[in-house]
Task: inverse folding
C-alpha cells in the first residue's frame, strides 16, 4: 500500500468486495482494474501500474471481482458476463462516493479481465471513456466486441505468441477507435525489465487523452 491508497469495501449488489482505492489530488478520471484469472486486488503488477497512474492524477480502483466462496468455483473465474456485470456494478458504487462521483471512468483489464472489461463497455456504451487491455484475451468477449464504443488500446507482449494473433483478430471486430501496441521482449505477464514501464506510458497517455475528451482536466 502506498501513500495514496486506502482499503475499501466495494458494494456490488448484495456483496461487499475488498478493494484498494488510490485517490490523488485533483484527479482527472478514474480507472477501474479487472484482474485476470487467479489474481486479485493484490496483483503486484496491477498495483504498480495503479501507483504510477496516480502520479499522473488518475484515480484507480482495484477490487476483487468475486467473493472468496465464488472464486472456489472455477466456472465463476471464467464467467466473463458475470465479471463484466461486476464491473458495471462497481461503477454504480463509485457514483455514490463523493470524491469519485463526477469523474470520467475507464477500464484496465489484464488477461481474462480484459474480456470482462470489453463486455462491460459493450453493455454500457456511454459509461466508459476508454478501455486498456494488458496481455488480454479480448477474444473471450465474443460477440460483445462489435458493440464496444469506448476507445480501446490493446497492449501485447512481443513474445506472447498466440495472444498477439488473438488481439489482432479481435481488433478486426471492433468498430470503435482502437489501437494495438506490441511491447518488444515482453511475455504474457510483462515481467521483463522495463516492459511494465512501457505499459504504464502507453496506458497513461491513452487514459489522459480520452479523459480529456470526456471533460477531465489534464
Result:
Amino acid at each position: 500500500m502506498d501513500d495514496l491508497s486506502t482499503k475499501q469495501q466495494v458494494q456490488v449488489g448484495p456483496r461487499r468486495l475488498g478493494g484498494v482505492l488510490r485517490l490523488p489530488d485533483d484527479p482527472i478520471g478514474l480507472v477501474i482494474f479487472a484482474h485476470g484469472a487467479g489474481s486479485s486486488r493484490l496483483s503486484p503488477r496491477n498495483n504498480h501500474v495503479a501507483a504510477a497512474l496516480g502520479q499522473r492524477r488518475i484515480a484507480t480502483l482495484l477490487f476483487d471481482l468475486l467473493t472468496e466462496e465464488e472464486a472456489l468455483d472455477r466456472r465463476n473465474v471464467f464467467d466473463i458476463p458475470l465479471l463484466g456485470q461486476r464491473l458495471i456494478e462497481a461503477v454504480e458504487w463509485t457514483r455514490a462516493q463523493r470524491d469519485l462521483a463526477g469523474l470520467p471512468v475507464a477500464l484496465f483489464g489484464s488477461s481474462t479481465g480484459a474480456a470482462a472489461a470489453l463486455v462491460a463497455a459493450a453493455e454500457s456504451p456511454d459509461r466508459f471513456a476508454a478501455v486498456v487491455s494488458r496481455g488480454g484475451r479480448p477474444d473471450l468477449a465474443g460477440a460483445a466486441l462489435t458493440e464496444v464504443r469506448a476507445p480501446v488500446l490493446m497492449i501485447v507482449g512481443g513474445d506472447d505468441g498466440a495472444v498477439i494473433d488473438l488481439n489482432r483478430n479481435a481488433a478486426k471486430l471492433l468498430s470503435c477507435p482502437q489501437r494495438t501496441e506490441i511491447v518488444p521482449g515482453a511475455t504474457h505477464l510483462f515481467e521483463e525489465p522495463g516492459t511494465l514501464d512501457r505499459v504504464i506510458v502507453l496506458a497513461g497517455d491513452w487514459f489522459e487523452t480520452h479523459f480529456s475528451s470526456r471533460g477531465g482536466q489534464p
User: Anything to note?
Assistant: The CA atoms of residues 152 and 178 lie 5 Å apart. The chain has a mean pLDDT of 92. The helical segments are 44-54, 68-71, 74-77, 80-95, 112-123, 162-173, 195-213.
